[in-house]
Fold:
Amino acid sequence: MPEERNTLDRILCSAKKEFMEKGFLNASLRSIVKNAGVTTGAFYRYYDSKESLFAALVDEQASYILALFNHTIDDFEKLPGEQQTEKMIDTSSFCLEQMVDYIYEHFDAFKLLIQSAEGTAYADFIHQLVVREVESTYTYMQTLKDMGCKVEPLNKNLIHIIASGLFSGIFELVIHDMPKEEALEYLSQFQRFYSAGWSELLNVKFGK
Structure:
């Protein structure tokens, strides 16, 4: 119904503004309801808590990026070892391009995820990406060993720190409100830096 849709839109618009300005922890449900021009009773017809309201603004977007990254890794790890090394840069570039396109289509949701999610189930959004990246790094290192490559033992804390720096760096484009064209240039250079570092650490040459 049009009126119901209008009420929901006003609640979500008010909530986004409140969360953007104050973060989840300091956001006031009373202010959200008041600025939306609805009653508390009307609010609870749609959401049962401030947490569920925040989720309505970010859950679909967070889930999409996590699924995209996980599916990319799953497909990559099905390749023979030689092809993994050949396709490493192309695969990561394509995944990153898809991420960037999606982020810029839903920029406000990612502003909330990165800057306003403390105190919610989404506060570990970047950490979830980091954990999967670390796992995939160990898997690739084992693949190299199985191929007979000599792989230098790496400190597990180093691998985690590198992965954390990677994803923190990726989402700097959101924190700094980079125009998309600038973000693409930044991430291209950023990826070259990381690829060169891993090539040195693992003693492999990516690509054909």
Summary: Residues 50-77 form the longest helix (28 residues). The CA atoms of residues 66 and 129 lie 7 Å apart.
